[in-house]
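Our consortium's second objective concerns turning raw sequence data into structural hypotheses that experimental partners can test. To show how far this objective has progressed, the report includes one record in full. It was chosen at random from the queue rather than selected for favorable results. The single chain below, 192 residues long, was entered without modification.
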Amino acid sequence: MGRPRAFDEDRAVETAAELFALRGYEGTSVDDLVTGLGVHRGSLYKVFGSKRGLYLAALRRHLDQEVLPLAAALGTADGLAELLVQAAAGFDGGPAGGLLLSAAVERAGSDPEVGALVAEGLAALDTALARAAGPAAGESAGPGGAEMLAATVLGLRLRARAGVGGPSAASLLAFAGRFGGTGAAGGAEPTG
């Protein structure tokens, strides 16, 4: 019988997600992970198999804890305008904010498992936008309208991650109004 695990696996995955979000996969060394997680190298490999195994666990956790719940909550937004404001403010956020975008850029094209997780997160955003946009907005935006709106949200999130200013909430509301958005469109300021 082996010794019991001396660390909290869920907490280790959470901390790893934050490190990967901050530094990227390539920019986070195993030594960074060992130091940041406060675990021995052998324990890390025994539990996760490799740095990649820990990365996949961290990305899965980020999807389950941050990305997918927010995408589901976006379905309750009061119209497309509110949805865009909420999505631009929080999609791929949380303690490991930006991990999905980072994974999309850095690893999805070369790692099929990462690509599948990224696709799952992006599909959830597309679905939330399509549901909120409805037929009128979809027709206004044309074929692939939800995907175009998702690309706008992701671009705004990327700009925020880079520290480059983005449009104001009022500008987002005006933009959403072009697609037949309802709710807060028409010049009203969003709450929050």
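The partners drew two points from this record. Residues 20 and 99 are 7 Å apart (CA to CA). Residues 112-141 form the longest helix (30 residues). Both points have been shared with the crystallography group to help prioritize constructs.
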